Amino acid sequence: MPELVPILKRDEIARKVKAIAKAISSDYKGRQLVLIGVLKGAFIFLSDLVRHLDLEDVKIDFLRAASYGEGTCSSETIHLIKDIDTDIRDKDVLIVEDILDTGLTLTFLIKHLKAHGPKSIRTCAFIDKSERRKVGLSADYVGHKVKEGFLVGYGLDFAEAYRNLPDIYHLKID
Ligand code: IMP
Ligand code: MG
After folding, report:
1. Does the pTM of the predicted model rise above 0.90?
2. How far away, in angstroms, is 160 Cα from ligand 1 center?
3. Which of 17, 45, 51, 157 is deepest in the core (most CB within 10 A)?
4. Helices H, strands E: what count in the chain?
């Protein structure tokens, strides 16, 4: 049986989400912002985040990417499964991810969205996991940093399970 070791409780998650929302609200004050959530993992984080933004003009869209490859091998390629339908030309865009791991997904998504001609693109990841990073990328807004481990809960899944858990756990499989 997999073991779930708690690493971040819901009250601490809420505190960190509010801190990110405060920083974003201050940085984008008086501007239009388009938030683009990366499905499926970011759906809970994004829904919490947007309700704490103190901004008047916020739009929300989603896209979905998937990677195929040998897990840790560098030949992994990212594919777009669902694109946005919002016009982001000349708009300030913030990509919202559940977790930044190798960095390949966000790198791919930034390149893809730049082709739509936005005014700016920044990135926000609730968790920044550093150990497996393959590209020199860091998110502009981060909720919590971890070095390693496979995490589940608060949108994060293992084989589509555990996304609904309100706390975040380290999943240990023996
Ligand atoms: P990256 O391209 O390696 O940065 O991958 C980011 C994506 O991998 C995330 O959006 C997650 O879907 C998935 N992922 C990476 N690490 C974890 C984890 O610890 N738990 C659950 N999903 C993860
Ligand atoms: Mg994901």
Report:
1. yes
2. 12
3. 45
4. 3, 9
